[in-house]
Amino acid sequence: MAEQIRNNNLLKGIATILKELRDAKAISQEEVYNDTNIHVGRIETAKANPTVSTIAALCKYFDISISEFYKRVEEI
Hints:
434 Repressor (Amino-terminal Domain); 5 helices; mainly alpha; globular
């Protein structure tokens, strides 16, 4: 099996935007987990390399388009 590609700068950007979205709604990581079954703590610390499907589910949860999410990530 090929080694997974890991872009630490991108993962840090994703972490930052997810934390901003969560903070804006004043919800805890536990609340996100209870609502989505996604452990955002590992994503917010850039330890996890989330799948596209995971990012899509989080975007839906936070009511942001995938394109807007990645646009914000790129602007960091």
